[in-house]
Amino acid sequence: MQFLLNVSIAATFLVGGFVSAADYQEAAALFRQGDYYASLAIAEAEVERGVWNERWPRLLIECQLTMGRYADAQRTYEAAIERYSSSIPLRLMGGEVYRFNNQPARAEKELEMIMEIVRRSPWRYSDKENLIAIGRYFLQQGEDAKQVLELFFDRARNTNSTYVDAFIATGELALLKNDFALAAKELDQAAKLDPDDPRIAFLQAEAWQSSDSEKAAAMLQRALQLNPNHVDSLLSLAEQAIDAEQFDDAEQKLTQALSINPYHPEAWAYHAVIAHLQGHFEAERMLRKAALSKWESNPNVDHWIGNKLSRHYRFAEAAEYQRRALRKREDFVDAKFQLAQDLLRIGQDEAGWQLADEVFAQDQYNVVAHNLVQLHDSIKAFATLEAPGFLIRMDAREARIYGAEVVALLTEARQTLTEKYDIELEEPTIVEIFPQQKDFAIRTFGLPGGDGFLGVCFGRLITANSPASQSQTPANWKAVLWHEFCHVVTLQKTKNRMPRWLSEGISVYEELQRDKTWGQSMSPTYRGMLLGDSFTPLSELSSAFMRPKSALHLQFAYYESSLAVAFLVEKHGLDVLKKILADLAIGMSMNEALERYIGSLEVIDQQFADYAHEMANRYGKPEAWLRDEEPVVEVKPDDPFAQILAPSPTPFDQQIQLASEAIRERNWEQAIEGLESVAAWFDDETVPIQVLSMQARVYREQQADEQERAVLKRIAERTSDAVDAYRRLIDLSKQAEQWDEVAKYAAQYSSVNPLHPDLQQTIAESADKLEQHEASARARQALLEMNPVDPAGLHFQLAQSLLAIDDQPAALRHVLLALEIAPRYRDAHRLLLRLTETSNQNDIQGE
After folding, report:
1. Exposed, middle or buried, 684 (CB in 10 Å: 0-12/13-18/19+)?
2. Above 90 in pLDDT, residue 769?
3. Which residues pair with 465 in a beta bridge?
4. Angle, CA 810 vertex, CA 806 and CA 812 arms, to 5°
5. Do residues 297 and 266 lie in contact, with contact meaning Cβ atoms separated by under 8 Å?
6. Non-local CB neighbours of 313 within 8 Å, separated by 6+ positions
7. Helix or strand holding residue 821 (H, E)
8. Do residues 203 and 183 lie in contact, with contact meaning Cβ atoms separated by under 8 Å?
9. Under 8 Å CB-to-CB from 299, ≥6 apart: which residues?
10. Model confidence over 483-542: pLDDT tens digits?
């Protein structure tokens, strides 16, 4: 790396001569705008005229490469390099030219010449343009990215703080290493310096994609406004359409890209992905061959295909593609790391972690690799619970508190769902439960973030947040694990060949089959979305999961998908659903399977729309939803007349607003009167939870315990994560000494957060009252893991519970622990004496 330093600190020497500014700027502007033919014509004329400046042949080569005229690019390059033999930027282009003329050996030789040229006179190549070119060369050669950044890109920027290419090069490097924050910062600065470059807008979209999808979409649209033929942006839109399973839209964008460059390898690679996802495997083979037609040893083609298959949970196929990429280029770090992640997701942990370690050792600027290696050390400290069909890893302390419940629930899920969907799981399911949300995100997505995700299933692997990592809107961990294990069943039954909406829809549907408080149910908000613009046709449901407008829209996508599954089962039968899953497993597309058993997509979409709309219209009485005349003017969010033009509120909305105002003013009688009138619009089982919660609040303020308790019971009967309601019901039931009710609501609370010491104390107390000594012992064992204030007393109480279930050895152990902490503990001495006498009597009887 010392040589890199020598190059970076050499004296400035500007390469290239005078250029006709107006003509060159015009040609370059045409290229930026996507008028490649016009730009090529001007550049070609200037090159033929023999203008003494290397920028003309470089622009001509760029046009020819962009348009897929690779043979022309080679002729242009070979003529230009004769004249500009010492040009580093030109030599760098030469490597690409020869690769796409299927001459990889000549490409490598051309790149090797860069090192030779710079070695001979490094002082000549320290101007900003050459620093960027040499830095990109060293990155291609696998040099340390951080040193390239510091010694080349940073120095180029220091030479000229307004040199936009320095910011672009840094942004590209950061994107390559998944350092999205740095990429966004650098590219934002580049955009300020050069706001009309579509390349910058495209890269900004890439930088924002993982954190702000709306901003990313706006940047992509900006790129295409600046250049409607910007190939990278068209390919990005195609990728998004593939992810949303909108294959017709994807193929339209790919066709547009191929009209610009008929040999573009990435466009053909994505065509191959679509063919694979649709089960057209012979077409996939031919399309992959087309992608490699101009550069047979191009490792990126298999890497691209594998990446997209991985996004669709085809991890085994994706891993094989990454292996193909590595056979073409052994040191291809990106392929190696993607292979590591794919292996970790199909349960091949040893190989996956080893590859991740190798990648990090090779590329310490890879943010995702760094995160995974750090996480691996944490996972090593987890406890491992083994049960038939399962390998469960979780925090050791949490395993002692509720690990047995995890095992019992998953065992039940396995027995129920495998039998229901006619599948035998050959390999154990791996379940990893993380007490820190960031660790869950890193294991699942590679980077911190992923807020809102409770669990993810990859087919054989489940990752989940533990109750310790939940935010102020906690979830029922039992429902989450049931949901994710259902994914295990359906993904393995279909060999991961199922659309996202169907996978999520079945899992939410099966939550409700297991427990009516789990899953999602109709609400006033969902009713409005089903009857409005948010409703998505069944054949397009996967698109609802891609870049939703808000967290609410994402949740609605889950709800609508579960509704679609309910529609399929109720109208056509569970057997039809299972036949569809079986067809997906052999490679048939979802639309083909639907048409095979039900009818045309148009008919299916209409049937589902009728089903969903009928369900929405049955929710509540019609008078709850009547509006005044709807506005005919489209309302924009920033319109100053939005409040005037917006749809008038429904009577439901009005009454909720009036009740809320009455509660704020502490006018309890008016609030209850209004809420009762709202509740009268619904059946007892469908009164919105929002209304019940407001009623409970008012009754509590009025100290009307019985009325409050009745309303809270209705909430607890319909929701799985209403912790405030559970706590209050526990308190009210304790006051009434209704210990069976205390135990019931404590169990519901424990399904959300078993790590709360007050809850475990309540479970122990109610179990004692009900003489449920096993439950009492479990709760007190859990309390021992929670830093108890009185550990001696807790050991003594646990000893009593253990004695009640006739576990005398364990009881003796805990009473001795109590005495070790408090040697003068009289009750413990009495219990010890009793245990000793009992033991002696048993010994005598045994003799």
Report:
1. exposed
2. yes
3. 434
4. 95
5. no
6. 458, 459, 491, 496
7. helix 808-821
8. yes
9. 325, 326, 328, 329, 332, 335
10. 999 999 999 999 999 999 999 999 999 999 999 999 999 999 999 999 999 999 999 998
